Request: fold
Amino acid sequence: MIEVKDISFGYGGKLNAVFKDFSLSVAPGRIYGLLGKNGTGKSTLLYLIAGLLRPVKGLVTVDGVESQRRLPETLQDIFIVPEEFELPKMTLENYVRINAPFYPRFSWDDLERNLRDFELPTTLNLGALSMGQKKKVYMSFALATNTKLLLMDEPTNGLDIPAKGQFRKVISSSMNDERTILISTHQVGDVNVLLDHVMIVERSRLLADCSTAELSELLSFEQRPMGASTEDALFAYPYIGGHLVVCANTEGQETPLNLELLFNAVHAVPNLLETARQAKKNAAYYPH
Amino acid sequence: MTHFSYSRFCSVLRRDLVEHRRTYVAFFAVLFIANTLTHFLGNAIEELPLRFFVQLFCVAAIQIIGSCYALSLVYADIDTKERRISNFMLPASNLEKAAVRHLLAILGFQLVFLMSYLCSELINALYTLVAHGAGAVVQNSLMLQLSEVCKLFTFYADLEEVLPAAPYLVLACHLLACSLYILGSAFFRKMAFVKVTAIMLFVNPGIFLNIPAFFNNFFLSHPAILMLYSLFIVALAVGVVYFSYRRYCRIQVL
Reply:
């Protein structure tokens, strides 16, 4: 669905290159989590995919069409929820009336359902909403457009605690086999259970590009008390009263995915996944 | 892949009208107040030819400044990052979006101006009716006196005697000035009108101070060349508008 091929991009010339010969592939029907440190190009990558930025070199295509051409036929299948956005001062009904015609698969029923899940009424004055409420309305509308590709930049920023759970419910109920959702976030705890695939980006490198199922198969995430051995761990992180460790999952017992720990682990051990794969292979050959 | 679809164009137009309705109402209000003040200022002048000259000058100035201001807003929708994202991600072609903005800045503004002017005329007529009686209504109406007033203006007639193609040149220069405001709106994210006006005030005298000598020596004796020169300026204006559009198409969300 999305192909990013050998792109180079930078702000203000070569000195500030964000991506150099960077490639990426995104398949339909999944929820992708795009993680990375500040300034590593997560938002830039979303904008490049949406066609809002043009790579200096390389190609970004969505369903085979170059996104930077901003063709209406492509745009009606892409919706981006940026971190900051503006909603016009009007009623929600008017907003939908003037924007929905651009999206052939827009569903008013879906919008109502999403708003209901966010505990918002359908009669709203957009000018009188708080930032968090605006975000809920905007995301509800974005999901109701039923575009094939939905890009979300820090979607849970500004949402209150109950809304984060509602967000997960709304996203999962709006998913289907044709749709791809790409979520760029630092709030890994908010999206942990939603993700089908994790991509950890570090400038021009993908430190991890793996499905959550495969991650659970490969790695186990444990909390060990102080004094317990961490020799078998691929990565150990000091924690109150012990260590959080990432080990190769040689036992075949899946543990809940800890994205924060994974994030720290892949930054500290760049070949973490490869090492885990090797350890798993070895364990299969030489069972203890 | 269609670059222009009529139904999408109508959707973009409707969206723009609804989203910017407050701006259009504000435009109407400002133009209405300015035109009404012009009428009342004119009414204070006793001498009729002078009154209409002042009124006509003021209305023309409001119209020209207003239309230039409207043109400087053609690409104003992309002044902030959030608005650029919203504009560029709207599923319509760049041509459709730009065409709507041009249509509203050119025809939309003229329509709003006309409505505001007619309303101010109506207010003026009502005031005159109450204050001076029915007989004075016709005398105080700029519109009704316009044909009479036009006879006072011999500028074009005189100019046409010397330079038969002069009106075309004036029109061409006006089109070029308008196109420069459109260009300004594509380049300046804030205060495009002020910036373009300032640039034109500084640059224009520099150019035009040197032109009269050229005119006297060459153009005056060659009306056909003056006509061609006018056409060249129109072509330049079209080029500037196209360049502005290309710039709009190339803008990124940096």
